[in-house]
Amino acid sequence: MAASDGGGGSLVAPAVDKGQMVHEVFATIARQYDRMNSLLSFGRDKGWRQRAVDILAPGAADTVLDVCCGTAMLSLEVAKRLGPQGKVIGIDFSPEMLAVGERNLRANPLGSRVELVPGDALELPFPDDSFDSAVSAFALRNLTDVVAAMAEMRRVVRPGGRIVILELAKPSATVFQRIYYFYFYHLVPLIGRVAVGRSLPYSWLPESVRIFPSQAEVQAMLSMAGLVNTSYQDLTLGTAAIYWGTKPERPRGLMEAGGDSPQAARSNTTS
């Protein structure tokens, strides 16, 4: 599973240190990534991805961008909802994760509907308005500038297109928080050490959740990135959350100029 700490810290982490560390983490865990996601989430990760795609609601012929696609599990979930004319483009910065993703595509009958490319979420190599919608899963915590990544997703999605983001989150219930953080800080690194031979990758996991903004803050960041009709939904007692927003339609007077008119309309739903 792929920034304020909720107490007023910076929303942008030091780019060089964090970027290099995240590269090393994913290079280390790529081959075990899917198995460990399922193990550490007690099998809930598949249902979380399905719910994210439910909210995305892609059309049969849509072209969808999966940002920080990793091993392409979310890309394949989107591909299930597409027809033969639909396409998913997955982009990721980690060659090791993309290599596992390519193997996953070859093993899946819907793999031909997905194309994986290398690239940076902060500088997406696509023209404006290229995609009908965009998704991302377990990635924002690992980026050096969350709002910039959201703004890039907004840029490449057509006006009226939806952006959906699945991410680990902070449980709100105090009693459950204690259990959750004990598991994350003490058991997850131990499990990671046994599974991959190193504790660092799975020591980073709970730390990345701790310093990540709260659900309400992430929703506000979607608006900062220029999205409207933003909302979020807690999953599994708040251990994960899905966030979404829409790229504004261009006002009639700006159609030819190509300008957008972001609005600060926000709503919130939880379950």
How would you characterize the overall build of this protein?
This protein is α/β, with parallel strands linked by helices and 271 residues long. The chain has a single domain (15-254), classed as Rossmann fold (3-Layer(aba) Sandwich). The chain is built from nine helices and seven strands. The protein has helices at 15-29, 33-40, 44-56, 73-80, 95-106, 146-156, 174-196, 200-210, 215-224, and strands at 63-67, 87-92, 114-118, 131-137, 157-168, 228-235, 240-246. The chain has a seven-stranded mixed β-sheet with strand order 3-2-1-4-5-7-6, with helices on both faces. The two termini are 22 Å apart.
Keyphrases for this structure?
7 strands; 7-stranded mixed beta sheet; Rossmann fold; alpha/beta; globular; 18% strand; disordered C terminus; 271 residues
Low-confidence stretches: 1-16, 254-271
Q: What is the H/E order?
A: HHHEHEHEEHEHHHEE
The CATH class turns out to be Alpha Beta
In whole angstroms, the N-to-C terminal distance is 22 Å
DSSP helical segment count? 9
How much helical structure, as a percent, in the residues?
Answer: 40-55%
Number of strands: 7
The CATH architecture: 3-Layer(aba) Sandwich
